[in-house]
């Protein structure tokens, strides 16, 4: 174990020695060289906003509207005197003088806080923190303005800035100025290089923050001249991470003593680049001072930087640790977590392990997860609403990752807190993978159908003739045997399934944990079908329960007319039929769930037959949802449909066998 650690540590250490900056030559030239000048150019109005004609004077000519690297280098150099003057003025003017024309953003408090951060000389991370927040919330504010002209906001900032609508509202020169700062990849691209964790604290200047604030105020002035008040601008609703508390409970609470241990781990791990350590110190400071929003804003880009460092070491591609040039893609989470790198297996899986990757995918990538970095970086969440438990979770994940690259001889890995963190990370089960969600929803559906038997019912004197739709006409045992044959279920499991009631089915499901990492596309298609089926069953279960309870209380109060009594009778007769039918459906879903990791190995023709079976079940549940609705009450048809489905499953099972 020690030898394995030494090999990994040395590999990471070599990257540390070679990487004094995560900025490529082109980006570093734009950020740290091209924009450095001793010249000043006053582009201000008397209200310290940017004047369009003055901005036009400094901007280079854009031929045919085509951006090139040469044009952006020239543009950054020519606007530098403007940045100098903005910095000179904004670093000295009173706080009250900057208060005007920010209301249009709907985030005035956030922008004023950034102004304070830019003037904070005590922390080396204040400027990058202010820029992280400014780029995110300016993007959000511009998207809101765009909604005045169209119904959809582009997902990417560079596409948002390229819209003609924004150019027509704010002026071409103003938007062009903003595109130089954070437009396409060949621009200064402040937003991306910050949020993807490429910029060290010393590599960015407060000039970049002050110019963004000046642009915000200039846009506010422009909107006022157009007669657009803040209340006229749409404000998209905020997203919330409060619901994450229901699944974030695996890690220990971080106390002051834990933070001291974490700080030591951050210093000693080889997973972090030395020039980035000030950020990690600031993360702990923000957490200690309960500034959870700021803590998460700094932490997330640094997690990506840390993982990129591990990625390049594991795959021996040191060139990928820096920002990409215009002709290449950044090495971001998408590639870090991918199964393959240039058609070779991504070795980060061997270094981190599956549970650590699942932790990160749950937090950052899965569509139905919180996708914390995406939502923060696009300004979709109020920083003041970031909950403590979420930041505690993310910080513990960071500690767990860094612990993998700390020498065991230091003794710090023997701390109780560290052992608890490693245990939690090593035993984590994915929560937001589609299969994980299917499992929860299926358990929910089973429990809801089980509760039908607890609904109050009454004996009626005039039950309808249910004919062939009674529960006796459905041989569940035979159908379950047919399903087992269809999927070639082994004999021991088959015995359990044949005698499996709802509770046993639920218990069996709880013990199942199918593989979820790097699964084939076809598994996703099957999982989607199963989830759709289960979603309809949940609605059906609720509608039947509501019908049983409502009708019962109407009967008790003697509020039923004769027709309603007949409907109630049909409902009571249909419940056993639906129960047995859904038992077979649940069993089919369970077997699919158990075998989902094998389904992709089936022949295409067999996959087609399986899809046909599941689509038939889906159609059945869709129809049930319609017919069990309180406005329909078509209970006899529900029974007929149930019988038809079960006959189809029986016939289908006799004709097919998925596993020969």
UniProtKB/TrEMBL annotation:
<dbReference type="InterPro" id="IPR025209">
    <property type="entry name" value="DUF4209"/>
</dbReference>
<protein>
    <submittedName>
        <fullName>Endoplasmic reticulum membrane-associated RNA degradation protein-like isoform X1</fullName>
    </submittedName>
</protein>
<feature type="domain" description="DUF4209">
    <location>
        <begin position="138"/>
        <end position="216"/>
    </location>
</feature>
<dbReference type="Pfam" id="PF13910">
    <property type="entry name" value="DUF4209"/>
</dbReference>
<dbReference type="InterPro" id="IPR039635">
    <property type="entry name" value="ERMARD"/>
</dbReference>
């Amino acid at each position: 174990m020690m030898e394995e650690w030494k090999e990994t540590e040395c590999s990471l250490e070599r990257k540390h020695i070679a990487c004094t900056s995560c900025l490529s030559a082109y980006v570093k030239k734009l950020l740290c060289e091209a924009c450095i000048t001793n010249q000043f150019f006053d582009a201000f109005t008397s209200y310290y906003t940017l004047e369009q004609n003055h901005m036009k004077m400094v901007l280079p000519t854009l031929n045919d509207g085509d951006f090139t690297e040469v044009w952006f280098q020239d543009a950054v150099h020519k606007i530098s005197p403007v940045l100098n003057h903005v910095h000179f003025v904004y670093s000295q003017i009173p706080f009250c003088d900057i208060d005007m024309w920010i209301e249009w953003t709907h985030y005035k408090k956030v922008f004023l806080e950034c102004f304070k951060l830019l003037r904070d000389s005590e922390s080396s991370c204040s400027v990058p923190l202010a820029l992280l927040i400014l780029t995110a919330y300016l993007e959000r504010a511009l998207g809101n303005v765009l909604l005045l002209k169209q119904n959809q906001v582009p997902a990417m900032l560079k596409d948002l800035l390229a819209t003609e609508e924004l150019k027509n509202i704010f002026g071409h020169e103003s938007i062009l100025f903003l595109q130089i700062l954070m437009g396409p990849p060949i621009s200064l691209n402040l937003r991306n290089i910050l949020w993807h964790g490429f910029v060290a604290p010393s590599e960015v200047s407060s000039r970049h923050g002050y110019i963004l604030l000046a642009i915000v105020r200039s846009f506010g002035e422009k909107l006022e001249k157009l007669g657009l008040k803040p209340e006229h601008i749409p404000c998209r609703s905020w997203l919330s991470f409060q619901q994450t508390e229901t699944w974030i409970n695996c890690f220990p609470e971080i106390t002051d003593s834990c933070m001291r241990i974490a700080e030591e781990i951050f210093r000693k791990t080889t997973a972090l680049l030395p020039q980035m350590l000030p950020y990690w110190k600031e993360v702990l400071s923000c957490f200690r001072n309960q500034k959870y929003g700021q803590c998460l804003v700094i932490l997330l880009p640094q997690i990506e930087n840390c993982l990129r460092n591990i990625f390049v070491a594991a795959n021996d591609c040191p060139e990928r640790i820096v920002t990409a040039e215009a002709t290449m893609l950044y090495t971001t989470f998408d590639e870090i977590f991918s199964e393959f790198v240039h058609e070779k297996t991504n070795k980060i899986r061997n270094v981190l392990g599956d549970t650590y990757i699942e932790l990160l995918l749950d937090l950052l990538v899965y569509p139905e997860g919180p996708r914390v970095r995406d939502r923060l970086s696009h300004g979709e969440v109020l920083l003041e609403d970031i909950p403590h438990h979420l930041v505690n979770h993310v910080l513990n994940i960071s500690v767990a990752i860094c612990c993998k690259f700390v020498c065991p001889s230091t003794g710090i890995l023997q701390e109780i807190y560290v052992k608890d963190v490693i245990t939690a990370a090593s035993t984590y089960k994915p929560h937001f993978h589609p299969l994980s969600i299917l499992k929860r929803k299926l358990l929910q559906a089973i429990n809801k159908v089980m509760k039908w038997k607890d609904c109050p019912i009454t004996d009626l004197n005039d039950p309808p003739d249910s004919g062939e739709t009674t529960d006796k006409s459905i041989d569940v045992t035979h159908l379950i045997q047919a399903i087992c044959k269809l999927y070639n279920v082994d004999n021991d499991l088959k015995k359990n399934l044949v005698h499996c009631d709802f509770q046993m089915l639920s218990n069996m499901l709880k013990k199942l944990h199918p593989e979820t990492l790097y699964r084939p596309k076809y598994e996703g298609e099957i999982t989607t079908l199963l989830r759709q089926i289960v979603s309809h069953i949940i609605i059906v279960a609720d509608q039947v329960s509501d019908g049983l309870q409502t009708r019962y209380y109407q009967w008790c109060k003697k509020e039923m007319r004769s027709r309603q009594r007949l409907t109630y009778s049909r409902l009571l007769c249909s419940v056993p039929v639906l129960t047995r039918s859904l038992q077979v459906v649940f069993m089919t879903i369970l077997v699919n769930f158990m075998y989902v990791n094998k389904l992709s190995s089936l022949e295409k023709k067999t996959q087609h037959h399986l899809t046909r079976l599941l689509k038939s079940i889906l159609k059945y549940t869709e129809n049930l949802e319609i017919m069990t609705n309180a406005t329909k009450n078509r209970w006899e048809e529900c029974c007929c449909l149930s019988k038809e489905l079960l006959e189809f499953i029986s016939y289908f099972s006799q004709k097919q066998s998925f596993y020969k």
